[in-house]
Amino acid sequence: MSATTTPAEEVVARLSAVYGDPKTPDPAMFVDEYIKALTGFDGRVLHRAADRVIKSSMFWPRPAELIAEIDDVSWDTGQKPEFQKMQRDSRNVVHRS
After folding, report:
1. pTM (predicted TM-score)
2. Which sign does the torsion angle of CA 85, 79, 76, 1 carry?
3. What pLDDT, in 10s, does the model give residues 8-62?
């Protein structure tokens, strides 16, 4: 993956390589929303969760399924999922003036 690729983009590219194009009327929006849902999680945790999902799922997992796996990996690595979520949420805060 290129240096400018985010962990969320890398994982979506991996899932696409394994499962093919998403079966949806708007694949571009699907990918955008998927990346948005995964943005902010620790890259190592995100990739480990993707490894687990790829081994257990026959179809594109829903973002919530992958996030549940991220929570499990977080616990397994000693990070609390709430901490993961706080990191993700703090990166997605919209500041309004």
Report:
1. 0.75
2. positive
3. 999 999 999 999 999 999 999 999 999 999 999 999 999 999 999 999 999 999 9
Question: What's the Cα-to-Cα distance from 37 to each of 1, 44, 78, rounded to whole Å?
Answer: 20, 16, 22
Q: CA angle at residue 82 from 35 to 8, to 5 degrees?
A: 15
Angle (deg, nearest 10), helices 81-91 and 63-76 = 130
- Amino acid letter for position 74: S
